[in-house]
């Protein structure tokens, strides 16, 4: 795609998201920017624009409107492509999205002018028995099927780190520290750090605690031959099953997610307080 173009990814079934997207489109049209709408977006108000697929050729800039899940799904489907993403919060929580609906017009103009800071977030590649599955921005979760206990061992850079009998384990990036890992008892990590968090899920071993490792570590999760089967959930979406004896490896991806931030570093702890620690 050549020239000034922006792709639009919008949460489905959300009046707030549709309204914010329409406001963004009006500004883009004023600025004579070519607009593409992601193929799964089904709002009648956005049906007149050409479509694009996140798994195919994409514009150099994307505007994602919705919640954390909308952003995570978009990045997951982008694969190794790294467009600059402006993230508009159109939901209750939206911890990863820092543009509010009331300021959409102003921030779209900043986005087109280049008046923002690009923050690059490392992604972790997830391999099942040696085959690459996807690169995640938040986390890879090996979790039991049908609430049946699984048995697994975790190694970090080839060294045994933990053995878990329970519901599974979460391997989280720094950005994912405020997601599933946090709910399971993992630490909150400042996004400027580069680490991985290995958080056991409901282990029988009551002494078991999360482990923090460098972001460029190789984490390998091996299901015991005596284990029950497990699901492999990546950034909240199931990508298949891990059978007894399977090895799930997590290591750094070559590509990164590039997010346009307008005031990110100044208000991380304010965001943490208002959107998570006082969440209702």
Biggest sheet descriptor: 11 strands, mixed
Number of helical regions: 5
CATH domain fold name of the largest domain: Tumour Suppressor Smad4
Structural class: alpha/beta
DSSP strand count: 17
- The portion of residues forming beta strands comes to 35-45%
Order of helices and strands: EHEEEHEHEEEEEEHEEEEEEH
Q: So, the CATH homologous superfamily of the largest domain?
A: Probable inorganic polyphosphate/atp-NAD kinase, domain 2
CATH architecture of the largest domain: Sandwich
Backbone CA Rg: 20 Å
Total count of domains = 2
Distance between the termini: 43 Å
pLDDT < 50 stretches: none
**Helix proportion:** 10-25%
Shape: elongated
Average pLDDT figure: 92
CATH class of the largest domain: Mainly Beta
